[in-house]
Design brief:
The protein has 164 residues and is mainly alpha-helical. It contains 8 helices and no strands.
């Protein structure tokens, strides 16, 4: 849906995209989603060495998520997005292992690209602002990149309906 909006209204899409890196609303949502996802993954962990500390780990990681929203507000949306990208990549790799087709490598390579993006955005979140500014510098570039993302999304959906 965002790609269709970018094709129909590249100026409006550019305005919204430029607001994203410093958006506190998106930051709170993405940090909450990332924290909840991380805590869920921690609940699935069965390493016996962690068992006595699991309750404290829950509290500690939940506190990190909440305190990040209070004290690390600069580029909070980008930091939250980085966490969500890492969690999404884990889910993608975990679920791709069962597929018999070599097409699963499309998902796995995409997941590793998300890992690299998550690490990169965690280390230098201001680069997302620069990347967005480059991507939406002109209406033509906005449309071309929207078409590329739309084609990739349709390709993945086609794989989902036919191969997976």
């Amino acid at each position: 849906m965002p790609q269709l909006y970018a094709l129909a209204n590249p100026g409006g899409f550019a305005r919204l995209a430029r607001q994203f890196p410093r958006s506190l609303g998106w930051g709170y949502v993405l940090m909450a989603l990332g924290t909840a996802g991380f805590l869920y993954n921690l609940s699935l962990e069965s390493v016996a060495d962690f068992a006595p500390y699991k309750r404290w780990m829950y509290l500690g990681f939940a506190a990190v998520g909440i305190l990040s929203c209070l004290y690390v507000r600069d580029f909070l949306a980008v930091r939250g997005l980085a966490i969500v990208l890492l969690l999404l990549a884990k889910l993608m790799v975990d679920t791709a292992h069962w597929a018999d087709s070599l097409w699963r490598l499309v998902i796995v390579v995409w997941a590793y690209a998300l890992v690299l993006a998550g690490i990169w955005l965690t280390v230098s979140p201001w680069r997302m602002r620069d990347l967005i500014n480059w991507a939406v510098a002109t209406d033509n570039r906005t449309r071309i990149l929207a078409v590329c993302r739309l084609v990739f999304g349709l390709f993945v959906a086609l794989l989902g309906f036919t191969v997976f």
